[in-house]
Design brief:
The complex is a heterodimer of chains A (about 600) and B (about 350). Chain A has about 600 residues and is of the alpha/beta class. Chain A is about 30% helix and about 20% strand. Among the domains of chain A are: about 110-200 and about 350-415, FAD/NAD(P)-binding domain; about 205-350, FAD/NAD(P)-binding domain, CATH 3.50.50.60. Helices cover about 30% and strands about 20% of the residues of chain B. The chains are: A alpha/beta (about 600), B alpha/beta (about 350).
Chain lengths: ~600, ~350
């Protein structure tokens, strides 16, 4: 293999698994260290710059970082990254004076954002701080989009939403509430320099089985029902409720129903438990509130008595996989299952819907009804119209919407300045040695062997009575510190200088996870098999040095490195060094590197 | 110096041996030697050898004298018996332990000062008595604990860190061991684990005195230009006579060798030493030839390494002394003190 070039921005970034997995590339280990040090405001600002909504995401993020966390590969559970984010939001001081101020001199460019969800708010923040005049149009009375309408208040209180949306609106963003945009043609005619569409995926999928029309009064689409709950239009449910669907919306529906008078609430899912789309922790939360999840049942009929819903009929199925691994659900032949109920919530998926975009204005849609976009720039076939969030590529999650918002803001800025949109500004990267003394580092390299801390919650007998009472209390500073200590500091990179190595093997001998080898070079497959412990995880890179004096190379398997720094402590010549890698994504307004 | 213990977290695919132990289970405390010390590599080689041999840690007794090298038994086999004896006296304490209990695997660890200076008499007699042990000398040619004076194994003409030239003749412990009757004699280099680990394995499974001289660079006081025990010098002058593959009786021999390049030695316990010849037509069964070869190559400035001599028919001290087979601590009062009637019978037989 060729020597690894750690100067390429992605190499060391990929070693920081959590940051790499985060769509917005939040510098996770850095804010976790700051949280442990009690510097909550500093930790908050690092989050705020990259993911815009630390308090919100610290409660409801989909956490792609946690399954990626290196700790999960050597320990039972990953670091509670998400809830540590909440800690810095909960315990910070007033940070308003640290927020950027919009420049006094505007650049006279006017941008319209349709929808006031996370994608639009991110675009607005990124552009308002560099002189754009941004206007947001939304049909609702308050900002937040689906974060406000569909996430129950016991998971995300309004106060948190108000605070973090407020930071953005106070940058001088024009908010147009209760403004239903019903024609993109009209918007375009108003002469905006660019238009950003962040309208989400607002239509819940239907469950068209017999009885749906007749019993319609007691059957609701999950996301619409959640919005009605959120805004106080719906205040109670029947006693026996069935929730159809296995995603996070279904979990929110069943847990809301449980708090609104539902005594016998159950979730019925077509697929098996493990294939459900809901995050594992959301399933756990539902189960812990006494809600059974029943799997491998396909809805067959709504049973009703002259329009009064009496129950639901399900067909039992089993999963079969063909040679390509595609699943099909086949009836088991067992008798159908009848479940009595008084109300059904359908949460089996969301779809995009753009009835307000005329199909003759030059904006192309694909066969799934999604806009045709450049995946990098998020630009549509109308050059001045950009998409982001669920409106761009279908339903994803908040953190993806934020990431889209950043990219769209960069694109809009380059578009308005007539720059090539495909030439993107580079991330800011930095690599600094953490050596403080002979064997002292400026980070805590003692690896914690503690297990994951549970977030304290209020008792169920209280929280099940009040849908607005937040269930989780959040970590206190001590729990936060103990949990933060579990972080392996993957951004403190092991950097090897081949010229200094005397091949004494000290690093090989000390490495607690045996990830360093000195061996003859070879092709990757061959080399992976010849290491001290064969490197079977091909998603993780090999760090290969140039040829050493004895003709061998140093090969480090990045997979299980604990970043404990023992290799660097045992190295007599400083060939190993622990250096902090800081990676900050480019922001709108930054220039692209010259070719 | 590392202030904390190695993290206990393991990779999920950590290899385990037949006893279900990982390599980590054969480790000891964190080394407090200088970073990059060759001795730490030897400790790691001992760990690997014991892991590969499925050694039960409680069946090993590790004994040492005084010095940097003699500290190392603290850094491997943390669950084994250990005895840090007085300076140069490891061989006699070990001999006593072996006489009392022949069931344990005896590993003596010493250095060039401990064995070639203050303890040379002890070393010589352990070899000639045929104590069943593995005797490892971690040889760096200097007194590291007292800031790098030449030791008795430093080559004449080599320079210390301040540029002073050594004027005394060196003691070659390998030559002494050969002459004194050791039945398994090897030399290796701490920076070449591929060679060292099989040599340690062979020695641990050898019956009789097995001696391994391991050149182990002192990174702090003897790893400079002009030293003959530095990483660079040893790598440039390493003159291996053979490469050893150690095969347990249960293992399949997978590698294939051209005829004539291989020598096969079966030890008393059925383990097999496969010796691949390198360069010369070297005969490891020829004690006199080995001594001659050693002298010739040393005169040319080369460091002869490999398994230099092995006698698989050797007998240990217990046979010579006709000692009791059972460990003394298991004999029991009735056996040790058979009572008046037994004494009477004995006395009567001598009348």
């Amino acid at each position: 293999m060729k020597p690894t070039d750690i100067g390429a921005p992605d190499y060391l970034h990929k070693v920081v698994d959590c940051q790499w997995a985060c769509p917005a590339h939040t510098p996770v280990p850095e804010y976790i260290r700051l949280t442990a040090a009690g510097r909550y405001s500093d930790a908050y600002m690092i989050n705020w710059h990259s993911n815009v909504f630390p308090g919100i995401l610290g409660r409801v993020c989909d956490r792609p970082c946690e399954p990626a966390c290196r700790r999960g590969r050597v320990d039972a559970e990953p670091v509670a990254i998400c809830r540590l984010k909440r800690v810095c939001a909960d315990l910070k001081d007033d940070i308003r004076h640290r927020l950027p101020k919009p420049p006094a001199q505007k650049n006279r460019k006017r941008i319209a954002c349709i929808g006031a969800g996370p994608a639009s708010l991110t675009v607005a923040r990124d552009l308002a701080t560099i002189g754009y005049q941004v206007s947001i149009f939304d049909s609702g009375k308050s900002p937040g989009g689906m974060m406000r309408s569909q996430i129950p208040k016991f998971r995300l209180p309004d106060s948190v939403l108000d605070e973090e949306c407020g930071y953005i609106i106070n940058l001088g963003v024009d908010m147009h509430y209760e403004h239903w945009v019903n024609s993109l043609r009209d918007v375009l005619a108003a002469g905006w320099d660019a238009v950003f569409v962040g309208t989400g995926a607002p239509r819940g999928r239907e469950c068209a089985v017999p009885g749906r029309q007749e019993a319609a009064a007691h059957i609701h689409i999950g996301i619409d029902w959640l919005a009605n709950v959120s805004f106080g239009h719906t205040t109670k449910t029947e006693k026996r409720v069935i929730v159809l669907g296995g995603g996070n919306t279904a979990m929110d529906c069943c847990r809301s129903a449980r708090r609104m008078g539902g005594e016998d609430v159950k979730v019925v899912v077509r697929s098996g438990f493990d294939e459900m789309k809901a995050s594992p922790w959301e399933k756990e939360d539902a189960i812990s509130e006494g809600i059974p999840i029943l799997n491998m049942l396909v809805p067959k009929e709504f049973k009703h008595d002259n329009g009064k819903l009496t129950g639901m009929l399900f067909e039992k199925v089993r999963a079969e996989y063909d040679a390509k691994g595609r699943r099909s659900l086949l009836p088991t032949g067992e008798p159908d299952v009848l479940m009595e109920c008084d109300e059904v919530l359908i949460a089996i998926g969301q779809e995009n819907s753009f009835p307000w975009i005329e199909r003759d204005i030059g904006l192309e849609f694909d066969k799934w009804g999604l806009p045709v976009l450049n995946p990098t720039t998020l630009q549509s076939s109308l050059p001045n119209v950009f998409f982001g969030g669920d409106a761009a590529f279908g339903p994803k999650n908040i953190i993806t919407a934020v990431a889209h918002g950043h990219e769209a803001a960069i694109s809009i800025d380059r578009f308005c300045r007539q720059r090539d949109l495909l030439r993107r500004p580079s991330p800011l990267t930095n690599l600094v040695s953490q050596k403080m003394g002979i064997h002292e580092w400026s980070y805590d390299n003692n690896v914690s062997e503690e297990s994951r801390r549970k977030v304290p919650t209020k008792t169920l007998d209280k929280t099940l009575l009040d849908i607005k009472l937040e269930l989780e209390i959040g970590f206190d500073p001590f729990l936060a510190c103990a949990e933060a200590d579990r972080c392996l500091n993957c951004d403190i990179a092991t950097v090897f200088t081949d010229k200094a190595c005397i091949e004494c093997d000290a690093c090989v001998d000390i490495c607690p996870t045996e990830c360093i080898s000195f061996t003859a070079n070879g092709e990757e497959d061959d080399l992976r098999g010849r290491l001290k412990v064969p490197a079977k995880n091909r998603d993780q890179a090999l760090y290969v040095s140039d040829t050493l004096k004895t003709g061998r190379v140093m090969v480090k398997d990045e997979n299980i490195c604990l970043h404990c720094g023992m290799c660097a402590e045992r190295c007599p010549t400083g060939a190993w060094d622990m250096r902090k890698y800081f990676y900050k994504t480019a922001a709108a307004g930054a220039e692209a590197p010259r070719k | 110096m590392t202030y904390f213990a190695k993290p206990k977290l393991l990779r999920p695919d950590t290899p385990k041996n037949a006893l279900g132990y990982t390599r980590r289970d054969y480790e000891g405390a964190i080394s407090s030697l200088c970073a990059g010390c060759g001795h730490d590599s030897i400790s790691a080689a001992v760990v690997q050898a014991c892991f590969d041999l499925d050694v039960e840690p409680h069946r090993v007794a590790k004994l040492s004298g005084i010095g940097c090298s003699s500290k190392t038994p603290d850094y491997f086999l943390g669950n084994s018996h250990g005895f840090n004896t007085t300076h140069g006296r490891m061989p006699s304490v070990l001999t006593g332990a072996a006489l009392a209990n022949r069931d344990l695997i005896y590993l003596g660890v010493s250095g060039d000062g401990d064995s070639a200076s203050i303890g040379i008499g002890q070393f010589a007699h352990a070899m000639r008595r045929g104590v069943n042990m593995t005797y490892i000398v971690e040889n760096n040619g200097v007194y590291g604990l007292t800031k790098g004076q030449f030791s008795a194994t430093a080559d004449k003409g080599s320079k210390n860190k301040r540029g002073v030239v050594n004027t005394d003749s060196p003691i070659d412990l390998v030559a002494l061991a050969l002459q004194l009757g050791a039945t398994y004699v090897a030399r290796s280099f701490s920076g070449d684990k591929e060679q060292l680990i099989p040599l340690i394995k062979g020695a641990l499974r050898h019956r009789g005195p097995a001696f391994i001289d391991v050149i182990s660079p002192c990174v702090t006081f003897n790893n400079h230009a002009g030293s003959t025990k530095s990483y660079d010098y040893v790598r440039e002058h390493n003159d291996a006579v053979n490469r050893l593959d150690f095969i347990l009786p249960r293992d399949q021999i997978e590698a294939s060798y051209a005829p004539g390049e291989l020598r096969r030695v079966v030890q008393h316990d059925g383990s097999i030493l496969l010796l691949r010849k390198v360069k010369t037509d070297y005969d490891p069964a020829d004690r006199v030839g080995a001594m001659n070869h050693l002298q010739e190559r040393h005169a040319l400035g080369e460091i002869v390494t490999g398994l230099l001599f092995v006698d698989s028919t050797s007998e240990s001290m217990h046979r010579h002394l006709n000692t009791v087979e059972k460990p003394l601590n298991q004999l029991g009062d009735a056996y040790l003190c058979p009572g008046n009637s037994a004494l009477e019978a004995l006395n009567a037989s001598l009348r």
